[in-house]
Amino acid sequence: MKDLIIVGAGGHGREVLEWVRDINEDNPTWNVLGFIDDNLNQLADKKCSYKIIGRIADWKIEKNQCFALGIASPVIKEKVTKLLRDRGAEFASVIHPTARIAESATYGLGFVAYPNSGIGPDAYVGDFVTLLSSKIGHDAWVGDYTTISSHCGVNGDVRLGKRVFLGSHAAIVPKKRIGDDVYVGLGSVVINDVESNMKVFGNPARGLR
């Protein structure tokens, strides 16, 4: 059994801990050591049975360790995972037992799938994607470091670029293309393609650079 360290002790990291516990209850998989976070006081006012055991910036990788990504920000995810992987870190995927992933779907390294999330047939999900309790439709393509918040609709044949963030209850109609580094605001409905480096809000979603 490998030792597991959760990277990031904020709200998302503590949720990832809960999903790891659920996985271990069904099938003992990891020995959880705790969190690493550059804010050593992140858990100061929280009721958490695990502690911050060190800082991300200076953590030394040891044998038998693997890591779970507990960070939601796409840009920070990319920065932190590259830093740790350059030191030899191995990242585990944390897929909740209630997540439904089609046999023909593909996902990359460090994937985190929340309860009741799902990936449809022939969809592709890149590295270090975070999927909260949402569904990715058939034939969709999701770029690296993207975060899809709860109750989003990523419909069939949608393409999301790298480092995209979808706020809760956002919806994208089928076959639309979203560029890299796009932020889709909470509750927005995307009915047109979105260029890279845009923020879009509303129903229908309208853009701001």
Automatic annotation (TrEMBL):
Active site, per annotation:
138 (proton acceptor)
Question: Domain PglD N-terminal spans what residues?
Answer: 3-82
Key word Disulfide bond present in the record? no
Record-annotated site: Increases basicity of active site His: 139
InterPro entries from the entry? AcTrfase_PglD-like, PglD_N, Trans_hexapeptide_repeat, Trimer_LpxA-like_sf
Q: What keywords sit in the KW lines?
A: Acyltransferase, Transferase
**Acyltransferase among keywords:** yes
One Gene Ontology term of the molecular function aspect: acyltransferase activity
Which SUPFAM superfamilies does the protein's record reference? Answer: Trimeric LpxA-like enzymes
> Which CDD domains does UniProt cross-reference here?
LbH_AT_putative
Q: What is this protein called?
A: Sugar O-acyltransferase, sialic acid O-acetyltransferase NeuD family
Supply the source organism for this entry: Desulfosporosinus youngiae DSM 17734
